[in-house]
Amino acid sequence: MRICCQSKPVILLLLLAFIITLSGCSKKEPEQKPQAGDTQNENKEPESFTQIIQETDTLIMTIGQKVNFVGMPAQGQQQGGQSAAGSQQTQQQAQQGQQASQEGQGTQSSGQQNQEQQQQSGQQGQQQQGEQGQQQPGQADTRQTTVQAGQQGTADWTREQDSIRKINQQWNSLEPEAIKAGLNPEVRDQFEKTMEELTMNISERKARESLIGAIELYRSYSDMAMVLKSKLPPPYYRVKYELMMSAARANALQWDMARQHASSLSQHWEMLRMKNEGQDNEVFTKTEYSLTDVKRAVDLKQKQLVLIKAEIAMQNLEDMKKKLSSHTGGQNSPQGSGR
Question: Of 3, 117, 248, 336, which is the most buried if we count CB atoms within 10 A?
Answer without folding.
Answer: 248
